[in-house]
Amino acid sequence: MTQILIDLVTDYTLRTVALGSAALGLVSGALGCFAVLRRQSLLGDAISHAALPGIVLAFLLTGSKTPLVLVLGAALAGWAAALLVMLVVKTTRIKPDAALGLVLSTFFGFGLLLMSIAQRSAGAAQAGLDRFLFGQAASLVGSDLVTMAVLGGVVLILLLVLWKELKLLAFDPDFLVALGLPVRSLDVLLTTLLVVAIVIGLQTVGVVLMSAMLIAPAAAARQWTDRLGRMVLLAGLFGALSGLCGAVLSSIVPHLPTGPTIVLCVTTLTVVSLLGAPHRGLIAVWLRQQRGRRRLQRDAVLADLYHLAAQHAQPDRAPHSARVLRAMGTPAGLNRTLAHLTGEGLVRRTSDGRWRLTLAGVAAGRRLVTEGPTPADREDRS
Amino acid sequence: MTTPQLEILAIAVVTAVGCALVGSFLLLRGMAMMSDAISHAILPGIVIAFLIVGDLSSPWLVVAAAAMGVVAVILVELLYRTGRVREDAAIGLVFPALFSLGIILITRVVGNVHLDTDVVLLGELAFAPFDRLVIGGHDLGPRHLYLMGTITAINLLFIVTFYKELKLATFDAGLAAALGFAPAAIHYGLMLLVSITAVGAFDAVGLVLVVALMIAPAAAAYLLTGRLGRMLWLAALFGLLTAASGLWLATWLDASIAGSMATCAGLLFAAVYMLAPRHGLLAVLLRRRRQRYQFAQTMLAIHLLQHEGRPEEADEARVDHLYGRHVGWDRPFTTQVVAQAVAAELVIRRDDRLTLTDRGRTRAAQALAL
Questions:
Q1: What tens digit of pLDDT does each residue of A314-338 get?
Q2: Is the pLDDT of residue A152 over 50?
Q3: Nearest 5°: CA angle at A24, between A71 and A52?
Q4: Distance CA B73, CA A218 (A)
């Protein structure tokens, strides 16, 4: 473990890989929030798959394997795919999901066709086109890092500058129209930023799995907060963290493809968030429901006992058997509830096995019957 | 054509038709991306089943891997029902995770020539004729043909048997439930079929391109007809065309068969998208243009009617007053609209002044009455 930390600082390859993957996670996580909030989660999937023919075409046309050239090809193809999806949806009755699948699969297929040609004629394996399929973090070098940093920096700066507008675009586009702001241009701009965020990650994660880097960090971050600013920050952090973990793991363990490893890291993070987040987390919600159910049972039993006791001259000296309570339709878990009430000092078990209210119990029962149920300590926010 | 080529063609056609049939229902039910999710998600199923069975074309492998597809569908639905993520995000969370698991299993655990990442993406249709089904010493043909043929036959049988139920569950799930047709059962039956088809097609075209074969022919057919039966026939036909033309393209370019088939699927859709008589891009654009001019003609008639018999009529009815501040059209557009209105006998043009005809007056009055 310490050795890894030392290597992270001293080893050139590992440092480059770690920095690159963290950068891609940061940018895609932040941008992914907008895609997820705007219900465009799968647009990223289409764009990243569609980038493949762009990469191969750029290579075939220029013969260059400079990352910047390939990334440019990827961006152009991804952008064209996004526009095509919008065009098909706008002009036909084909639904968005079908248009996405259509563009995604046919672009990707075309990419594979081109790749098989490139492999035969120009040795695409030597050009390292293969690494764009599932990603290869180890292939990152210093110049890639510079490209990623510049592109990612531009994306993040634009995100900050246009923060208010993009926030409105995500939550209330109609209001944006009413303000007289160019919604169409903003939409295209956000899609362009998405494209850039995707192409940054293609070399490390690969076209097939890049969409997960947009969706998973955002979905994870969403569970921890209701504020967009915090969500974007958290998603960037989650993305960077999983990029780092995945890339380091795949560099250390031989024959571990980077893309899938990063995706499994980010999925783990998402599952943990879905289960364990404080308010929206499934475990927290379950616990809250259990507490609420127990409170309802307690109130019901207390009210029943009070109604029974109130018919006697001395309410705190009128024991009743559990069978009577059952006959009154008390919900399940009566014994546990009675034990709980005993613990609160409201109910006492008599020597012959029946139950009676204490003086405090009578008061609590009266309060319950006249003033309504105990207020919940916290509203269920799901 | 040589016998192996014919056999490859037969496998490709059977695969494409089987995919197009189930794909049509996915498209109509708004679950097209589920094919993407399923086709990715069956990968770990295939790998695990392959580790146990050791044979890629065994029927057991198909069943085991298809089960994984249904598991993926259920996972997506569970995730979606927690209310924590939307449906598209749920799909986007589940399938990359399962696919990643499959890829890691392949590279770390399996790592042999029969199952590597190239096969996963591209299939190995070109080698399919070498894998023969031999029973009692008789060579009956390539094994994949029988496998895929059986799967397509099952799809066909399912659709023919449950045609009414499928139709109702697809277009009006509420009514289907009310009539006791169990739309949930139909739903999972369909998902199972999609999974089985995807596993079978995996050998032929690879995982990602299954999506192309499922969606593209169905989408093209959907643009051409509004009737389910006709759509299924057309989708199957387009599947057949895709397979044949894809194979031809692959031979011609000496390129990947799967890639060529997906490309042809895309081209075929593009052609239909351009030219379809009612829902095609050209038809839509032409219709919008025509409607724009017709609307403008009506506007013109209304404008003239408003000022008819009033003192300002002499001014308002002049053609050169129409563009600019009165109606807000530009000059070429106005000229064209006026010419069309004259041709349609809505107005009469004398020198530079327009007068409504009876027909024009009726048109304006009708439009105003709406």
A1: 888 878 888 888 887 766 778 888 8
A2: yes
A3: 35
A4: 22
Q: Which of residues 11-30 of A touch B (CB under 8 A)?
A: none
Q: Which tokens is A266 given?
A: 């980010």
Q: Which two tokens stand for residue A333?
A: 């878990």
Q: Name B347's bridge partners.
A: B356
Provide, as residue numbers in chain A, all residues whose Cβ is less than 8 Å from the Cβ of B216: 102, 105-106
Measured distance CA(A135)–CA(A129) in Å, rounded: 10
Q: Return residues 33-52 of B near A (CB < 8 Å).
A: 33, 35-36
Per-domain residue ranges of chain A? 2-263, 283-371
Q: What is the DSSP string of B249-290?
A: HHHHHT--HHHHHHHHHHHHHHHHHHH-TTTSHHHHHHHHHH
According to DSSP, the residues that pair with A348 across neighbouring strands are A356
Looking at beta carbons, which residues of chain B come within 8 Å of A95? 27, 30, 32
Q: Which of residues 104 through 133 in chain B touch A, CB cutoff 8 A?
A: 104, 107-108, 111, 117, 121-122
Task: Name which residue leads in pLDDT, A203 or A261.
Answer: A261
Task: Provide the pLDDT for residue A80.
Answer: 94
Evaluated on CA atoms B27, B28, B34, B40, the torsion sign reads negative
Q: Is B158 helix (H, G, I), strand (E, B) or coil?
A: helix
Tens-digit pLDDT profile for residues A285-325: 999 999 988 888 888 888 888 888 888 888 888 788 888 88
CB distance A39 to A97 below 8 Å = no
**A283-371 placed in CATH 1.10.10.10:** yes
Q: Note the ipTM here.
A: 0.86
Which two tokens mark A275? 């289960």
pLDDT of residue A125: 55
Neighbours of A201 (CB within 10 A): 31
Contact A257, A242 (CB under 8 A): no
Q: What is the DSSP string of B182-198?
A: -HHHHHHHHHHHHHHHH
Indicate whether B245 pLDDT > 90.
yes
- A216 to chain B, any CB pair closer than 8 A? The answer is yes
Task: Write the single-letter amino acid at B369.
Answer: A
How does pLDDT run across B191-243, given as a tens digit for each residue?
A: 999 999 998 888 777 876 789 999 999 999 999 998 999 999 999 999 999 99
Share of chain B above pLDDT 90, in %: 34
**CB-hemisphere CA count at 13 Å for A163?**
10
> CA dist B289 to A115, B223, B224, B280, B333, Å?
41, 20, 21, 14, 12
Pairing relation of β-strands A347-349 and A355-357?
A: antiparallel
Domains and CATH numbers, chain B: 3-277 (1.10.3470.10), 283-369 (1.10.10.10)
Question: How much of chain B exceeds pLDDT 70, in percent?
Answer: 96
Cα–Cα distance measured from residue A250 to residue A255, given in angstroms and rounded to the nearest whole number: 7
For the beta carbon of residue A379, count every other beta carbon within 10 angstroms. Answer: 8
Question: What is chain A's alpha carbon radius of gyration, rounded to the nearest angstrom?
Answer: 30
Q: Tell me which of B22, B85, B268 to substitute to probe the interface with A (most A C-beta atoms closer than 10 Å).
A: B85
DSSP three-state, residue B142: strand
Structure tokens at A104: 């995604």
CA atoms within 13 A on the CB side of A213: 41
Q: Which residues contact A217 (CB under 8 A, 6 or more apart)?
A: A25, A28, A29, A32, A234, A235, A236, A238, A239, A242, A266, A269, A270
Among B207, B189, B190, CA closest to B198: B207
Q: What is the CATH number of domain A2-263?
A: 1.10.3470.10
